[in-house]
Amino acid sequence: MSTDALGLREQKKRETRQAISDHATRLFVEHGFERTTISDIAAASRVAKMTVTNYFPRKEDMALDHHEEFVASLAQTVRGRARGESALAALRAAFLAAVERRDPVIGFTGEPFARMIADSPTLVARLRDLHEQREEALAAELGGDVEARAAAAALAGVHRVLFAELMRRTLEHEDADAVAAALEKAATTAFGLLEPSLGGYAVREA
To answer: Which residues mediate DNA binding here (predicted)?
Structure first.
């Protein structure tokens, strides 16, 4: 098979995966995650049930389709920090930048999507698991020892609190700009609390 043919095949796979995710999310928002079946999603996407499960072994991952990026995000930010920059400084800057661009990975998904998650025990549990995976990935990036795990718990904990605050305000019908302004203030406070203990931790050598 030629390189061009392989490229088209991969593009088709990506398009199919995105189409399934889009149809699934629409159905989840309209009818609720728990009440929407794989058969419903397959019918809406015009594919076989097996095709749906081949692309998404877990039903939850059709709703939380940024889960891989979410889990890897903190570790990637720390890995890419500048020389002379601490893990805390890098994560704070990255979070504030994500707030400015209203990044869906940190929770800017709109009220209908936030409501879909809040109303589903399955999605709430899955999101809790993803937060834990994200913390574990950050701990591994920081070295994996007790000190690294303690630092990761504190740093990921701030992100978890801010995510919950974003969700709460979204569910209370605040618009994205108001949520962003409140979140920027909350992030400055929350990350500032860690400055005395972690401001000089994991500073990349100049």
So the answer is: 37-56
